[in-house]
Amino acid sequence: MAATDPLRLLLRHRRGEDAAATGRSSFAYLSDDDIYLDSACQTLRPQPVIDALTSYFTTHNACGDRVKYAWGKRVEEGVAATRQRVLTTLGLPSRRYTCSFTLNTTYGLNLLLQQLPTGRFARVVTTHTEHNAVHLSTITAAHRLGIPRVLAERGLDGSVLVADADLADAVVVVSAMDNVVGQVTGHLEDLITDAHRRGAIVILDAAQAAPHALTRLRGVGADAICFSAHKMYGPALGVVAAANDLLASLEVVFVGGGQVAAAREDDFDLLPDLHTRLEPGLQAWGEILAFGAALEWLRPRLAEIEAAEARFAERLFDGLSALPHLRVLNAGPSPVISAVPERVDAHRLAVFLSRAGVMVRSGHFCAHHWLQERLSLDPLVRFSLGAHNTDHDVERALEVMTGMMRGL
Question: Which of 263, 282, 299 is the last residue of a domain?
Fold first, then answer.
């Protein structure tokens, strides 16, 4: 159906009215036949974020930290405001933490782990349930540092079951909410306290927790929190909020423009600004500014979004759990729900759903060690919620799934 088709325009208008009624008018560009359930990959962008990025490109498309003209000054001020907004959102004091921007969560984790000081740590600790961003980067970090890597189990509440002795002088890297069933890590504050007491540092993969469990992240006191703006209603961008002590300790090897105060024939001096430790080269200025707009958009709506996600998650979990030929992996409702289909390949099922206008993810969701090696699972389908979703989206998805699974 063409975008200019009168029926599609009518549907878009109706979706706008529904969105306005539920506080989601920022996604009025969606129509009733756009049922997007893949926010765990990336969220849709509310209109103020789109407007902010467009404004940068059309009114002050300049570099920050490099120029003296007015456009550049405007960029610098906006980027500084976004850095502070990130720390405020996470409840972290700016006197102890610094915000840096990267390509994505994976880049942020690798930039930290691959530049940790040698000789400082005794082991790397992570869990079996991690996204590849953690699973793979901790393998290479342990190899580089020449230390063992410990893989811990998770408790029923998602807590990390690690021995006290393994925390001593360790690099602990875990997700605050997993990428498959959306389980929040239990007793996270206790883990961080115990790790610090034993001379360890804790780096959090918060890619899913930031959009879906933000209130659980605030003020947890990890040494670094890595997440993605594009899973949090912003443009494609990675974010790292790290303790100043950790950033100052890095053995910086990813180096380039924007990081040095002086360069000599065989040496250089780093800038004192700690955010530059993770920011070699030109930055995504427009995306950083637009992420600031995303955080401003999110702040007054957070409670409403969390409540709506909880309600939709319960309905989606109950509905999927009742279907034949489908094994839901979740133990309970979550904004991220994964299931193993029987009698049909998950990728094929995702294609069928797409033809009915329902967009879900299929595969192993970058958790291959957990799902393939440990659980021996075939590809799954994943339904993940976002601020744009409505009751209509959930009911339509369940209606289509019901017809497909009962027809097998």
Answer: 299
pLDDT at 66: 87
pLDDT tens digit string along 77-134? 999 999 999 999 999 999 999 999 999 999 999 999 999 999 999 999 999 999 999 9
More confident of the two residues 11 and 246: 246
Q: Is residue 31 located within the same domain as residue 83?
A: no
In a shared domain, residues 36 and 90: no
Residue 324 lies in a domain: yes
Mean of pLDDT over the chain: 94
Tell me the pLDDT band of 3, cut-offs 50, 70 and 90: very low
Is 400 inside a domain boundary? yes
**Three-state DSSP string of the chain:** CCCCCHHHHHHHHHHHHHHHHCCCHHHCCCCCCCEECECCCCCCCCHHHHHHHHHHHHHCCCCCCCCCCHHHHHHHHHHHHHHHHHHHHHCCCCCCEEEEEECCHHHHHHHHHCCCCCCCCCEEEEECCCCHHHHHHHHHHHHHHCCCEEEEEECCCCCEECCHHHHCCEEEEEECECCCCCCECCCHHHHHHHHHHCCCEEEEECCCHHHHCHHHHCCCCCCEEEEEHHHCCCCCCEEEEEEHHHHHHCCCCCCCCCCEEEECCCCEEECCCHHHHHCCCCCCHHHHHHHHHHHHHHHHHHHHHHHHHHHHHHHHHHHHHCCCCEEECCCCCCCEEEEEECCCCHHHHHHHHHHCCEECEEECCCCHHHHHHHCCCCCEEEEECCCCCCHHHHHHHHHHHHHHHHCC
Query: What pTM, to 2 d.p., does this model score?
Result: 0.93
The answer on 314 and 280 residing in a single domain is no
Is 168 part of any domain?
Answer: yes
Q: Which of 267, 299, 331 is the last residue of a domain?
A: 299
Does a structural domain hold residue 145? Answer: yes
Which pLDDT score is estimated for 24?
Answer: 66
Q: For 14, list phi and psi in degrees, rounded to 5.
A: -65, -40
In the structure, what pLDDT confidence band is assigned to residue 76 with cuts at 50, 70 and 90? very high
Say whether both 243 and 360 belong to one domain.
no
Domain count, the chain: 2
Q: Domain range spanning residue 61? A: 51-299
pLDDT tens, position by position, 20-52? 334 468 999 999 889 999 999 999 999 999 999
